[in-house]
Please model this.
Amino acid sequence: MGTSAAMVQLKVMKAGGAGAIADMKCSEILACFDPPIEFGSHSQMVGTKDGYQAEHILPTSAMHDLGRGGAKFPGCEGYSTGGALTFMAGDGQSEGMEHKILTDQMRQFSQQNDLANRNAPMSEWMEQYKQGAKDALSKGKPTRTIKRPDLDRDSLIAAAAECITLAAAESFAKLDPPVKPDTPLRNPWAATKAQKAEAESVNMDVDIM
Model:
């Protein structure tokens, strides 16, 4: 993919624990993990690795009026669930799995947007996904081995998360028509009753003050 040539900065550890900043291609960064982080469409990737799931980079349900198929949300007409970019994430919705960490990040952002009665642009969803990817790669199960001991782990993970979102942004830009960074996306997860009640309580306290 074209994104593999993108350059991202990260820290290289030197003797004595000192660090220096270096530029690496995304293809090199993503290959530092075992298993490596590789991209492909959902149709290509699904079912290709036991214990892993073809993870959509941004929820596919955010691109549709309802669920994961059917009519598209305005501005997402070029999107398709099967053709969308994915990578293989540790499967399952049990605590600590890569897929659950990513899902939780997206759910929380969706619910915050729903409470605020807003549809955030894709660029904001990407920033949230980047944070979720960092958490998933640093804390998620199964743990990915780092094959380059000379690289700072946290710096490498941050660089990988950036590469993941760069690849996704490139794939959205290539759709026909493209999904643009300023395109508002649907909130697939509505705020819960408890979240709404808490928000109303806070608003009442503010009004009283």
Q: What stands out?
A: Helices lie at 26-30, 42-45, 98-115, 122-139, 153-173, 193-208. The beta strands are 7-13, 19-25, 33-34, 39-41, 52-56, 85-90, 145-146. The longest strand covers residues 7-13. Residues 153-173 form the longest helix (21 residues).
